[in-house]
Structure formats: structure tokens, C-alpha cells
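Quick entry between incubations.
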Amino acid sequence: NAGVTQTPKFRVLKTGQSMTLLCAQDMNHEYMYWYRQDPGMGLRLIHYSVGEGTTAKGEVPDGYNVSRLKKQNFLLGLESAAPSQTSVYFCASSSPISGRTTDTQYFGPGTRLTVL
Amino acid sequence: SQQGEEDPQALSIQEGENATMNCSYKTSINNLQWYRQNSGRGLVHLILIRSNEREKHSGRLRVTLDTSKKSSSLLITASRAADTASYFCATPNNNDMRFGAGTRLTVKP
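Done. Structure below.
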């Protein structure tokens, strides 16, 4: 049982390039999330999904797109990377007993992205 | 915007001492969670306390919640070097969770 995994672990992009970050979970969780973490700040939610085929915007969605074609996978895309998107990206999943998105979340190890 | 804010931003103690971190939040909540993050790793859930609970224990962790003051505290007793990490509180915000900026705890051997 691997939990939540993220691919890749590190990536360097040039301004304007595109890339996709992959998150996979094997816990059969309904809900999945993408966060970014910047120095001195907590995690900020980019997008989330409450089920296969659904996505919703979080606190800082601009410049990112997501897709949830399969329940176990949640993809985060950057169409035209900017230096302001240099950050550590974390994926998380949860399976709320109460039907809310606000129960315990399980995190992946993170992807460190640098945009030059 | 951040919902929870931790205090202090950084804390340095000797092994064996207790560490106390505080979290303040702004709106009414149904639960509050604490997470730990070791350097370069993802967050790990420590404990969840519901709004109708005042105190909760898990091993060497003790969490309190005061909904009238909109605050929570995390106490780590008999700290160990392995407790060195950042600790975050998280509170519900509509359909998602909001995390504070964290308290960086250093436990010196």
C-alpha cells in the first residue's frame, strides 16, 4: 500500500514551458487536492476534486489546470510556466466519513518545481 | 487567505522539555487538525479535535480547543530530537482545509 505518490520529485522548467504533475493514490479515496507551499507560508489550495470527473478551484487556481479522469489519479498542469510558480507542490487525498472535504488528509512526498 | 495562524513561528528547546504551540483561527469550525512536516517531506496527520471536544490526547501529544477564544494548542511532552519538524494547524473553510504558516520546532539533543 503506497498511499499517495507524486511524479516527478524534482523538475526545472524554463519560463513558458508546460508540464504535468501526476498524483496517484491507492486508498480508494474520493477526494483529492493539489497544494503549493512557499517559504514562510502554509499550504495554499490550488484545485481539488470530490470525485472522478469533477474538479473545483481552490484559493490560488490561476495558471493551473487539473483533471480527474480516474478516481485514483489527479493531474496538475501548468500550460505556460512562470517564475512565480516556483514552489513545492503537494498532493493529498481523503475519504470523508461525514461527506465533507474537511476530514483527515493524506499527503504525498511533494514535487519541487523551479521555473527559470 | 490563511484561516489558522500558529504561534510562535519558531521554537527551540532541549530534549526532554515540553513544547507548546498555539493556533488561532477566525471563523466557526466543526473540527481542527494538527499536522507535522519533516524537512523535505509531506505533511502527516497527527490529531483531529472536534468542536464539541475540549481536550484530546494521543501518546505524548495533547491538544486543547477553546471555541470561545477561537484557539487551539498542541503540547508535546518529553520532547525528543525526532520531534524536530514544522507543525501546522488546519481548519475547514467551506469545502476545503486552510493551513497556517506553521511553527518550526527544533529539539536539541
